[in-house]
Amino acid sequence: MRIPGAGRFFTAARATHAVYGSIVVLAVVTGLDEASASARQAFLASVGAAFAVVLAEIYADMIGTTMREKRPPNRAEWREFTVDVAFGFGAACFPAVFFLFARLGWIGLGTAYALAEWVGIGVLWVYALVASRAAGHGVLRAFGWAAIVTLCGVGLVELKKFAGH
Question: CA 148 to CA 112: how far, in whole Å?
């Protein structure tokens, strides 16, 4: 099954930015708990982590392009950087929405933490599934591969949390 426009929407660069940002934000969310961080603090920590990742990725893209092309990035490259990292920022911030809901009193803080973690894992799984399908894997193999790669992502989150970041 092909989704019209998916090739332009799910590019490798956007997936890279979204997955990296999602792992960092998921590590922040799992490192917080209800006893130590309010809904407001968790929301700000999640969005702040995503924003820090965006700035780091733009910086890295700028340096990488300058070294690779032996010139500063042109307007088209800057536009591409911006679109790619904005896409990543949106994916990384998605779990923060639940802390906003908790702050507004729409859901409980415990529910917000649980949903943020599961949605973060879901974002990683969706990107792994899309990557596997793009690689030509059949549906069953893609689902299995996505599950294994997502478990690796969760392992990275836990390792980052264990390291105190």
Answer: 26
